Amino acid sequence: MRLRLLGLSLCALGLLGLSTVPAGAAGADATSAAADPVVTNYDSQVRVERDGLLRVAETWKLSNVTGTFTRFVVTRDHLPDDIDHVQEIGDLQVKVGGQDKKAELKTEGDVTSIAVPDISGATTQLDVTYTVKGAVAKTLDGTEVRFAPLTGINLPIQTANIVFSVPEVSHVSCFAGPIDSNIPCTLAQIGETSGPTFQQTALPPGNTVKMAVGFPKGQIADNSIIEYRHTFKRAFSTDAAQLITALAVLLLGAIALFVLYRLRGRDQVDPRRVVPASLFSLGADTRIDFTPPSDLRPGEVGTLIDERIDPVDVTATIIDLAVRGHIQIVELEHSTEFARPDWELRRVSNAPAEELQRYENVLIRAIFGDADSVLVSELGKQVRANLAQVQDALYDGVVKRGWFTERPDRTRSLWATIGIVTTVVGVIATVLLALLSTWGLLGLAITLVGVGLLVVGRYMPAKAPAAGRVLGQVAAIRGELLEMDVSELPTDQHAELCSRALPYAVVLGGSDRWIDALVATDSTPDEADEGFTWYRGPSGWHLQYLPDSLRNLTTNLTGALFAR
């Protein structure tokens, strides 16, 4: 198929060459055969050096040729496995009528052209000498010259004679016609006193004469010039060296990632372990006290579980601060039934005398600043700008408690950066190696290691052993929040205890059942309710509205605090 395409290209070049003949020549007597441009004779002497270099001396006898005379030589042969054999033509010298003549040597695609301008006269003799490098290829029994000196000439050639000057010859062959022709030449023989001789008569325009001369081992050196065609298959070669190297990089990378996860990312505790714990304990005078184990706060619980500070952790902290008496949440009047709801957060002046965690103090300052109240709809950029300080304080707090040896966010950020850099390097290496070599698989292996780093980095860092007991207590609390019979709580403490448990349920699950328990404290469902000390509704508000109110509050708080 490649040879057929090359033949079509040569025919097109031949027609182009014909177009350079001046109109005056075409306007001559069309009935006169002598007026048609033709190559009456082509004689070539090819000397094959021991190192494989061909020294070619040609004599062209042209009749009625005017303008630019162009001849072509096939200098690139496409072989299987994306291999090309290339021939290089050099040391070109051209004489016309015994005088030196400047000619243009140009290689385009598979063909090299020699163009001699300003040819005129009824009879012209061209003497052309040049060298050919890369025409000798290795065979099973020795080496072989493969040369096609006549290719795509735009004129008919009446007689072509080619004689090789060589040492001992093992075989010869010659074919004439189209580029992929297997029609033998008029003559191809090994002379007793001279080198191989080839002859072809009446060669039509655009046709080719190609020949091969074989030599025993040790006579003529192989000087093949091999180039590889750039293809996807070759760029990502699966040859032994490339495949083994890529697999070795993948294997070593996988081992390194596994070791990294075991040492830095694998938690040293079993989060499924349950340690007896409860949010409630029996206090003096048979009252129930709310006593979360280890003085756990909702925000800390969420951060400990997934090693991240999520919007729900901050929202639960705000509700917890309200329930504990530091903030009051007031739902504002709705101007219309379809108006967007809003809430006022009020700082409580006579808040309980308890020590707040550092992240809780930072959160209160971020919300209120120097004011005593703020609308949820106006929390705005100032709160979001200070939210990073809240997250820093919360991360520092879980490290201070000994649950982590290093801050999870910074550790993940570090490994994410390493993973991204490795992935980018792998992608760049893949592109460059695929474009410039056959080692594209190595670049892919590096890229996969980088992706693996991104995945493993998400599990950084490992929880410290001190977090084990706390996680066990959290598992017990989750079970309590999801399964406890709320009706067993004392009636006079029902609202208070359900409110204290609600922020933990927001983080751990089961918030709906605790909100329903608060709704169930409504003893006068037909009358409007003010709400609780920590949450006040507008006029005409009922406790039955609490689920929707808290759901809307959570949505609006998340949007105000985390929206960009």
From TrEMBL:
<feature type="transmembrane region" description="Helical">
    <location>
        <begin position="414"/>
        <end position="435"/>
    </location>
</feature>
<dbReference type="Pfam" id="PF09972">
    <property type="entry name" value="DUF2207"/>
</dbReference>
<keyword id="KW-0812">Transmembrane</keyword>
<keyword id="KW-0472">Membrane</keyword>
<dbReference type="InterPro" id="IPR048389">
    <property type="entry name" value="YciQ-like_C"/>
</dbReference>
<dbReference type="Pfam" id="PF20990">
    <property type="entry name" value="DUF2207_C"/>
</dbReference>
<feature type="transmembrane region" description="Helical">
    <location>
        <begin position="441"/>
        <end position="460"/>
    </location>
</feature>
<feature type="domain" description="Predicted membrane protein YciQ-like C-terminal">
    <location>
        <begin position="290"/>
        <end position="518"/>
    </location>
</feature>
<dbReference type="InterPro" id="IPR018702">
    <property type="entry name" value="DUF2207"/>
</dbReference>
<keyword id="KW-0732">Signal</keyword>
<feature type="domain" description="DUF2207">
    <location>
        <begin position="39"/>
        <end position="215"/>
    </location>
</feature>
<feature type="transmembrane region" description="Helical">
    <location>
        <begin position="243"/>
        <end position="263"/>
    </location>
</feature>
<feature type="signal peptide">
    <location>
        <begin position="1"/>
        <end position="25"/>
    </location>
</feature>
<protein>
    <submittedName>
        <fullName>Membrane protein DUF2207</fullName>
    </submittedName>
</protein>
<keyword id="KW-1133">Transmembrane helix</keyword>
